[in-house]
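Morning F.,

Quick status update on the modeling queue. The single chain you submitted on Monday has been processed. Sequence for confirmation:
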Amino acid sequence: MAKAPAANPRLYAAVPRATQPSVASRLLRTLLPPVLMGIVLIIGYAITRNSLEPHRQFLMPDAYGLWTQAFGIAKVRWDLLDRSLTTLTIAIVGMCVSIPIGMILGIVMFRFHVMEKAFFPYLVALQSIPILAIIPLIQSALGFGFMPKVLIVALFTFFAIPTTLLLGLKSTDRGVIDLFKLQGVNWLVILRKAGLPSAAPALFAGLRISAGLAVIGAIVSELFFLAGRGGLGQMLINAKMDFKYEQMYAALIVSSALSIGVYLFFSWLGNRLFADWHESGGKSA
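Structure tokens below.
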């Protein structure tokens, strides 16, 4: 009788896990790329400004002018903070309108295929219509107050929510759905237990997109609806009309930071929710 070959212990040896990078290393890898890109942008800005004729360089203020005429003045700093809160309020209320309606529409399109065929072309059309073309209609219907600004933010942020949710729901494992059906579970339980958890990462990708667009939509709305409490959009217009370009650039910088901050908040929230079980959480192996 042939003798069984001896087992090679090297084949079954434990493989050591890769050492996790230190906090300083992770922080460096996270911050270094945007910092380097920021330096490139600053250099490009300086080159562009220096290429202008001297009497036109006031159109692109330098760092000293931004500090002495904008950020270094307490009244301007307070004005920037107050107007940022106004813009953020408009953006949040607009998203509070678009998120639930978009989620309901995404679920309806997933549940009824005919509804997807009926609604999706209009979603694409709504996304492709220039906001400037419908602003007169919004003004005629809602006036110049707070609600038209909220409506514009909702229009800016709506498209990404039902489309990403629908994509996520369609990506649900069919085996899991069939297993629920074999147990006689109704559709709502399948949606709650399998569909929405599976679609949540895709939905949060859409929320990140909408979050960045929300602040942009709020500022755009303030450029056309000047009534009511003013935000960063009104500050941009007023500073431009008064030839206070330093304050205009300060408002632009703050609005960009606000948009990035809202985007990073949803990114952080998504990572916290999905880091332990989904690749979108960004958890390294």
